[in-house]
């Protein structure tokens, strides 16, 4: 995988990692970053979850239903202006890797990170191939897991934070949002590679 990315060229490269909630996108992104860094290229990591709209403003729009989450949770204007546009611009020397921390709700949009001319930016997150940002990626990865496995993994992961409501949130909010995404965007054909990540220890490339 790292070789496929590096073979794209020596300039800046943007990699998008998409897939259902709890498909393993963040861990996969970290592992890919380690391999690319070991090959001698500077790597930056970001997640779309750090570019959601402030939770305090949720009363201004629906963010808690499945459709509302899909339509309203993410701030794609900030994703573009703070992160993707600078990384795509040869003259830019810095970018912002986090807009608002989803846990603390602290605004980090004023904190910049140096941007090397040959940096590889790896971004993970649901809905990464939406029309608002899809054109920025040089390489697209889809991590495939079944919907029910996504719910089970996500509920287990979020048990400490959401308690007994964790499974319901994943089933009625995140899964519904992802089903809308599949219907409206059809993201899998956009991927350069599809990986079955049902078993974390045994990822498997799915023939397209």
Describe the structure.
The structure is a single chain. With 208 residues, this protein is α/β, with parallel strands linked by helices. The protein has a single domain, classed as P-loop containing nucleotide triphosphate hydrolases (Rossmann fold, 3-Layer(aba) Sandwich), CATH 3.40.50.300. The protein is 36% helix and 16% strand. The protein is built from seven helices and eight strands. The longest helix is centred in the last third of the chain and has 20 residues, at 166-185. The chain starts with a helix and ends with a strand.
Question: In a few lines, what is going on in this structure?
Answer:
With 208 residues, the chain is an alpha/beta fold. It has one domain (2-206): P-loop containing nucleotide triphosphate hydrolases (Rossmann fold), CATH 3.40.50.300.
Summarize the SSE layout with pairings.
Elements: H1 2-6, E1 13-19, H2 25-38, E2 43-47, H3 66-72, H4 76-88, E3 94-95, E4 113-114, E5 120-124, E6 139-144, H5 147-157, H6 159-162, H7 166-185, E7 193-196, E8 204-206
Parallel strand pairs: 1-5, 1-6, 2-5, 6-7
Antiparallel strand pairs: 3-4, 7-8
Helix pairs in contact: 3-7, 5-7
List keywords for this structure.
single chain; 208 residues; alpha/beta; Rossmann fold; 6-stranded mixed beta sheet; two-stranded antiparallel ribbon; 7 helices; 8 strands; 36% helix
Approximate shape:
globular
Neighbour order of strands in the largest sheet: 2-5-1-6-7-8
Cα separation of the termini: 15 Å
CATH fold annotation:
Rossmann fold
Count of β-strands:
8
Helix-strand pattern: HEHEHHEEEEHHHEE
Weakly predicted, low-confidence segments: none
Instruction: Label the structural class.
Output: alpha/beta
Mean pLDDT equals 96
CATH class: Alpha Beta
Described by strand count, sense and barrel closure, the largest sheet is: 6 strands, mixed
Specify the CATH homologous superfamily: P-loop containing nucleotide triphosphate hydrolases
* Helical proportion, percent range: 25-40%
Question: Quaternary status of these chains?
Answer: single chain
Overall structural domain count? 1
Which CATH-level-2 architecture? 3-Layer(aba) Sandwich
List the total number of helices: 7
Strand content: 15-25%
Radius of gyration: 17 Å
